[in-house]
Amino acid sequence: MKQSLWHLGQLLILVLVIGSLHLATITLLNYDFPDATLFQLYAVNFIMAIFGYAMIRLAYWLKSQVEGFVFLLGSFIKFGVLYGLFFANETPAIHESQQAFLHLFVPYAICLIWEITTLAKILNQAPKNSE
């Protein structure tokens, strides 16, 4: 439990720091991208990263040895949700901005890198099966 709280704290700090830098960059460079949409992107990625982490932890706790597959499935689901929420709905803010892909990709990439790093830590601590 202590390790899970540590990992989730790392994610929260990472999202807050990178999100703040991202928002400051958008503001300083006068990009035409709404702050509310950026906040939504980080919030959705953050929530989905927590959900994916919980599923990986559950698979680890059940000793099912499918943590990597759970991660892959979570990544596909996350991409589908992001596409459905922000691209498929024809959000004007997204389609009018020339830098839209970058602004969409940064929160996704940050959470994805955290998930990969955390999964590697979980798998490295897993007890080795002796046959």
Quick structural overview:
The chain is an all-alpha fold.
Largest sheet: none
What's the overall average pLDDT, rounded? 80
Q: Please work out how many helical segments DSSP would assign.
A: 5
Give the overall silhouette: elongated
SSE-based structural type: mainly alpha
Residues in helix, %:
over 70%
What does the model show?
- By secondary structure, this protein is mostly helical.
- Helices cover 81% and strands 0% of the residues.
- The protein is built from five helices and no strands.
- α1 packs antiparallel against α2 (35-61).
- The longest helix is centred in the first third of the chain and has 27 residues, at 2-28.
- It is elongated.
- The two termini are 29 Å apart.
Notable characteristics:
single chain, 131 residues, mainly alpha, 5 helices, elongated
Give the secondary structure arrangement, pairings included:
Elements: H1 2-28, H2 35-61, H3 67-87, H4 92-96, H5 100-125
Helix pairs in contact: 1-2, 1-5, 2-3, 2-5, 3-5
